[in-house]
Amino acid sequence: MLTIGVDLAAEAARTAVAWLDWSGGxxxxxxxxxxxxxxxxxxxxxxxxxxxxxxxxxxxxxxxDFVTAHRAGHVQVPAGLAGRAWRRDLAWRVTDQVVxxxxxxxxxxxxxxxxxxxTMRCAVLLAELAWRGQPVDRRGGGAVVEVYPAxxxxxxxxxxxxxxxxxxxxxxGELVDRLREAAPWLDLGEHEPLCRASDDATDAVISALxxxxxxxxxATVPGRDQAKxxxxxxxxxxxTTPLNSLVA
Length: 248
What we know:
The protein is an alpha/beta fold and 248 residues long. Helices cover 44% and strands 13% of the residues.
């Protein structure tokens, strides 16, 4: 089985893709690409059993309704709410609020933060995959699944902070060390130096691991009361088992 991970940014310069080949009780990192453009991402996803994308797959339904109402001049504040209380469901999706409740981590707001630019790019990628015949289910049941590397690391008992950007290269190196210790079956091969030098590459690898968890049914899925929103907003698949379960 081949899974890929995509650390998606608004532009190719900060985007990375990782390919993990799963066989013989091991996972081998066969390739990592930084500076990945749309064509690289689409072709990688077309050839994978599952693609984990570190980016929101949609916007909050209530935010979309709010913008539509604003365009028509009919915005109304829900009765009994004021300030931040009524804006919460505009800023955070159902899945974002579930992740915060389960992990203590708060995903970036796709409607009120710069990650919205990456989501615009992601929307085009999803449309292209669907046009090419790939099943696209924002709940995670199709060719792609939304992942959140920081939450994955936390659930797997690894450090999830202090490894981003050039100023934290030492922290990135420590994370790679801990990841190799926790997953001795993970072979980074010739790509290990890049993982130690680029947090984008490392996040792509983590996203590919999370894609494996989703493919094996070892990640959260929306419940009945969450499925409708997840179908349009997207759903972050959180690992539900230890890291070693991915090769069990």
